[in-house]
Structures are given as structure tokens and as C-alpha cells.
Amino acid sequence: MANQYPNDKLKIFSLTANEPLAKEVADQVGLPLGKLSVKRFSDGEIQINIDESIRGCEVFVIQSTSNPVNDNLMELLIMLDALMRASARTINVVMPYYGYARQDRKASSREPITAKLVANLLEKAGADRVIAVDLHAPQIQGFFDIPIDHLIAEPILTEYFQGQGLEDLVIVSPDHGGVTRARKMADRMKAPIAIIDKRRPRPNVAEVMNIVGNVEGKTAILIDDIIDTAGTITIAASALIESGAKEVYACCSHPVLSGPAIERINNSKIKQLVITNSIKLPESKQSPKIKQLSIAPLLASAIIRVFENKSVSTLFE
């Protein structure tokens, strides 16, 4: 671990969703993780005990609301209530992955906006600030009436590919909504972009229509924020190869990788899938095609900057 951070008013706690990432973040900051216990009763109820004083402290709680989404979210809400009742000075929620972010608008009549509901719950439970990574929809920041710092993992993914010696690159967005993300990577790598024009007839089902841009003879890098069942990304990879791409890499910030995702990736035209550890990757989802990068240095830098009242946006300049 690095040298002790020179302020005993900074505390970092981890809940159960992604303890390895939280431990790495705490090590980067130079602090031990805060002491707490998380227990579950036989009926599924969660009990949390904070085993050290946090009175007057600035507390950061690290919790991805990934699968099991509802359990992890409820665990976080209970922890926030405990911190508030224990007189923490400020309560900062660090969410490497924000569950329910894809439900950010009413796509049809009588639908909820669940991403907004989650924001309301976090605020009501006692959060003073949220630090999130690559929100599926940037406008989710506007769902909060408390400060929110929106971190970006794309520079970490880009740096990895820059070190691989790849040539004749084209950066590909798997849909129109991801063009801004693809453009940022393309600008850093001084490469052109292409766009997969797709139609999604129903959730988790994607149909490729055509490719906008030249990919013939090029090494394509698909970039997305979330890969869930991997249907979109594997269909896109096949379409790129059929359109003349030399080889296809893919990357994402959040490896949800549910259902048939691993099987699809292993059987796909994707040469390598590069992901971050915003979501803990269990052994059952390991694959020789998957390379995982750590966002711990990014989260640690953001925590220190928030604690020291310094700019977070300068991390990306």
C-alpha cells in the first residue's frame, strides 16, 4: 500500500459488489478500507454495521449496482442511511457502474424512468455527491440535485490500444448513440470513424442494417459503454469482417456480460475484447479473448481531488 494519506477525516468503504476494485482504489489513495460488516438474514434482509467512528469524516462508499442489481442497490441505500445516522460530515457515493441507467426516458406510454428513481433514492438516503463512470446517458447527471462527477474510461482504453502497435485503424460506433464516444477515441488515436446503422426490434436484440464509413482493409476497434448479452457487438464484428475489415477488436467500460455473452464472444469474429473492472468479472466469465484494465487509478484520483476541493475535470485534459 502507498504511504498513509495525511488526513484521518477521509474514509473509504467498500460494499460487496466489487471489493477487489475498492481495495485497489484504497491502496492507490493510501488508506485501508473502512471497517464494516454486511450480513444477510435467512429471508434476504441486509444488515450493515460500521465498525469504526466516522463522525465528522468525509466518507466515500464504493459500490457498483451490477448483478444482482436490486441487492446491490439496496445494500448501498442501507449503507447511506447508516452513514447519515452515524454523523458523517459528507457522504460520497462512488458508482463505477450505475444500474438502471438504460431506463433513462419514456420510450413508450406508461413506462417509468427508473434511472431518475435511483437518483431520487440515493439523495433521499443521504448521498451528498455521486461519482459515476461512463453513464449510459449523460443527461442522467441532470436527474440529481446534488453534485455529480462524471468520469470517463475511454482514455484508459485508448492508452491500451495505443500500446498495441495497431495500424490502419478505424474506430467504430456500434450505433448512432455512441458516436461521441467513438469520436473521442478516434481523435486521440488520429483515426477515422465508422458507424453501424442498426435497428433494435426489441430489448437485447439488434439487427445490423449497414455500415457508414470505410472499413475495407482496416483494423476496426468497436467501442461501447455497456456490453450486456454481446448480441450487438458480435453482429457488428461480423458485419465489419464481411465489409472487408482486416480484423476487429472491441472495448467497453462496463462488462455486464449476461446470458449468452461469453459464448457469443468466444465464437465471434472479435480478436480481443478489452474491458474495465467497473464490474467484477467472476471466474465463470473469464475468457482468453477478454483483457481487463483497471479504473482504480482514475477513481482514486477523483476521490483525492473531491476531498481536496480540486477540479475533477482536469483529469481528462
From TrEMBL:
Source superkingdom: Bacteria
HAMAP family tied to this protein: RibP_PPkinase_B
Broadest EC class assigned to this enzyme: transferase
Reaction(s) catalysed (UniProt annotation): D-ribose 5-phosphate + ATP = 5-phospho-alpha-D-ribose 1-diphosphate + AMP + H(+)
Active site: K198
Cofactor(s) it depends on: Mg(2+)
Protein name listed in UniProt: Ribose-phosphate pyrophosphokinase
Annotated positions binding D-ribose 5-phosphate: R200, D224, D228, T229, A230, G231, T232
UniProt keyword terms in alphabetical order: ATP-binding, Cytoplasm, Kinase, Magnesium, Metal-binding, Nucleotide biosynthesis, Nucleotide-binding, Transferase
Residues that coordinate or bind Mg(2+): H136, D175
Pathway named in the protein's UniProt entry: Metabolic intermediate biosynthesis; 5-phospho-alpha-D-ribose 1-diphosphate biosynthesis; 5-phospho-alpha-D-ribose 1-diphosphate from D-ribose 5-phosphate (route I): step 1/1
Cross-referenced NCBIfam families: PRK01259.1, PRK02269.1, ribP_PPkin
Protein's cellular compartments: Cytoplasm
Cofactor details (free text): Binds 2 Mg(2+) ions per subunit.
Main location: cytoplasm
PROSITE patterns according to UniProt: PRPP_SYNTHASE
Enzyme Commission (EC) number: 2.7.6.1
Family membership noted in the UniProt record: Belongs to the ribose-phosphate pyrophosphokinase family. Class I subfamily.
Organism: Sporosarcina ureae
